[in-house]
Every structure is written in C-alpha cells, then in structure tokens.
Design a protein that fits this description.
Keywords: Ribonucleoprotein, Ribosomal protein, RNA-binding, rRNA-binding
Mean pLDDT: 86
CATH architecture of one domain: Ribosomal Protein L15, Chain: K, domain 2
Protein name: Large ribosomal subunit protein uL15
Distance between the termini: 91 Å
Order of helices and strands: HEHEHEEEHE
Helix content: 10-25%
Number of helices: 4
CATH topology of one domain: Ribosomal Protein L15, Chain: K, domain 2
Organism: Candidatus Nomurabacteria bacterium GW2011_GWC2_42_20
Largest sheet: 3 strands, parallel
Structural class: alpha/beta
Shape: elongated
Low-confidence stretches: none
InterPro entries: Ribosomal_uL15, Ribosomal_uL15/eL18, Ribosomal_uL15/eL18_sf, Ribosomal_uL15_bac-type, Ribosomal_uL15_CS
CATH class of one domain: Alpha Beta
Subunit structure: Part of the 50S ribosomal subunit.
C-alpha cells in the first residue's frame, strides 16, 4: 500500500453546483426570480440595514442608563432632636439613627446625615460617621462630647 492509495473513511461532501448542464431544468433548483436566483448573488449583512437607519432613529433603542448619575440622599438633623432621643454619653452613628427611626433608608442605602446646630443640647454625646456643621460641633465639644 502506498500513501496515494490511502482512502478516507468518510469522504468530504462535495457542494452541489447548480445551473451547469441539464437534469434540473429551467431554474436549476434556485427557485424563481429574486436576488438568490441571479448570478453572483450575495445577501448583504443584516446589520448593515440597522447601521444605515441609525441617523433616523436618533437614539431609539439606546439605553439611557449610561447617562444616569448616582444621586446621594442627605438627611438633616438638628441638635434639638438628638437631645430628645439620646441619653448623656450615648454614641450617635447612622446605624443608631436608623434604629431610633430618625432616618430612613433610601433605595436600600443609608443616606448621608448632616447634623445642624439649631436647638438646645444639654447632654454629652459621641457623634461618629455624620457630617456636622461648625456651630453644632462647637456645641457638642463645649459639653465634653466628641465628634469624629
């Protein structure tokens, strides 16, 4: 046995050539008329039509999520409210304010809390993790409290 005598187990399928000679008659299996029946036919890519239409669509089908900005929610509390809710020496954090239901979650997130200086504070408080105004900070530190 020589190398040229080796046969493949499964010969390659030969593509049927249409329209050469007889035996299929008239349209030679191409159907009737239309782009596919012509010589040299080629269907253009479907995406081409979509791309050509884009100027007229003017943003249709485009997600607007890429333009959305993350909006941060702020909650303002006054020292007077903290004076009513907390005892002397208590620690005030966003988590504790949620437990006391002074603050609500917005979109499953704890909002940023800012404490302002209006109202009377007569207790020593430990404030952490909150924004605080200058007047509120001096009022808390004046009573021996801490702000971090």
């Amino acid at each position: 046995m020589q190398a040229h005598e080796v046969k493949t187990r499964k010969p390659r399928a030969v593509k049927k050539v249409v329209g050469r000679g007889g035996k299929r008659g008239k349209t030679s299996g191409r159907g009737t008329k239309g782009q596919d029946a012509r010589a040299g036919h080629r269907k253009r890519p479907q995406m081409r039509d979509t791309i050509k239409k884009l100027p007229k669509l003017r943003g249709e089908g485009v997600s607007r999520n890429q333009f959305k900005t993350e909006f941060t929610h702020y909650v303002v509390l006054n020292l007077g409210i903290l004076n009513l809710e907390f005892k002397a020496g208590d620690r005030v954090t966003p988590k504790v304010l949620l437990e006391h239901s002074l603050v609500e979650k917005k979109g499953n997130k704890v909002p940023i809390i800012k404490i302002l200086g209006s109202g009377v504070l007569d207790k020593k408080l430990d404030i952490r993790g909150c924004l605080i105004s200058e007047s509120a900070k001096t009022a808390v530190e004046k009573l021996g409290g801490t702000v971090k």
